[in-house]
Amino acid sequence: MGYEVLATPNSIARGRYSIGEKENNLFLKLMYAIQRDNNEYIIAENKKSELSEEDILKWKKLCEIETLTCKLTQDDFNEIFKRKNDRTENSLKDTFSALSNCTITFDTVTRDGVRAKMIASLISHFYIEKETGNYQVVVPAKLYKYLFDLGLGHTQNALQVIYKLKGIYAQRFYIILRSWSGAKRDIEFSVQELRDMLQLGDKNKTFNSFETNILKRSIDEINSTGIMEIKIKEKIKKGRSVDRVVFTVKDNEPRNYLKLNEQKVKDESVIWLDYIKVQNEALKERLELKYNDLDLSSPIVKNILHKAYDKTLNKDNRFTMIQDLKGKSNFALFNHIVSGELLTHELKMSQDII
């Protein structure tokens, strides 16, 4: 089955919100959740040059629907946002709103077969469940089909890729190379194939003009981002004209595809005090025993332990909870910070008395 290469995002409205690490992390989790919650539509594995009949049916179904919906839970937010302040309702609304105001323009076909330009936001709208605090997020189906085809659903710097590649030909060239770079290092195309995929039409008819104005500029722009490292390895002639071009490509973006059928590791984590998450019930009991001389219902004690928990996750952001596993532990760090916070509080109290 052949693919039609479409124009990549070349018009992005940031709105009045800034896009940074928080927004990018939420966008990546959103891409993951869309795949997880819509496996009847999404081809999650790395697509090869030919799709299976089952994948083709998924592809067609995805083209026919308008929206996709996924759910993000408090556990999802705890995983991607280490700071408690980033997980408040107001902060989450601001982060979601930033994605809502990120608009992407791309070429597509309407449901009745008319070629058109689609302008869509990364998020259509979202609901905040009153009882659970979970978020139901609604997104445009065609936009996300397009982004998954582009490979952005599996790259750690998804929004940065969209923003860094400003030139339309650099964007198109990135799509072309991205679709092949996971399978081979040296990628060969005929000059005519490249011209067709880059949608040049009658522009830059001679190879010298094509190479100077399109290929080299696109390569320089992509290389400058660190996303890929591209070189022209060889120009193969047919007679006196260059007929084919071989590129050497090093793809620096990871391809972490969602394995929909793999078994999930059993999550035994529990909540200890309000929102302090620990790896299992046994560790929770150890913490209760260690701090049994403290009044855990006291707002002051709670504040000290909450502050220590936030500081622990901020100091070592590999963790999303308090853990005490061989080779992977922040339990001692947490207790050390708690001791420091308690000492600080005692000193402050003694000074107030004096």
List keywords for this structure.
about 350 residues, Arc Repressor Mutant, subunit A, 3-stranded antiparallel beta sheet, 12 strands, elongated
Please describe what this structure looks like.
Residues 10-177 form the Initiator Rep protein WH1 domain. Belongs to the initiator RepB protein family. Pfam families: Rep3_C, Rep3_N. The protein is an alpha+beta fold and 354 residues long. It has helices at 21-37, 53-64, 74-80, 89-100, 141-150, 158-164, 168-181, 191-197, 207-225, 281-290, 299-315, 331-353; strands spanning 67-72, 103-109, 115-121, 125-128, 135-140, 186-190, 228-238, 241-251, 270-271, 277-278, 324-325, 328-329. The protein has three domains: 21-164, Orthogonal Bundle (Arc Repressor Mutant, subunit A), CATH 1.10.10; 170-251, Arc Repressor Mutant, subunit A; 270-353, no CATH class. A hairpin with a 2-residue loop joins strand 11 (324-325) and strand 12 (328-329). Helix 1 (21-37) packs across helix 4 (89-100), helix 7 packs across helix 9 (207-225) and helix 11 (299-315) crosses helix 12 (331-353). The longest helix has 23 residues, at 331-353. The chain is elongated. Residues 1-17 and 256-265 have low confidence and may be disordered.
Number of domains: 3
What's the CATH topology name of the largest domain? Arc Repressor Mutant, subunit A
**Cα-to-Cα separation, first versus last residue:** 81 Å
Q: Helix/strand-derived class? A: alpha+beta
Q: Characterize the largest beta sheet: strand count, sense, and whether it forms a barrel.
A: 3 strands, antiparallel
Protein name: Replication initiation protein
Organism: Clostridium hominis
Family: Belongs to the initiator RepB protein family.
InterPro entries: Initiator_Rep_WH1, WH-like_DNA-bd_sf, WH_DNA-bd_sf
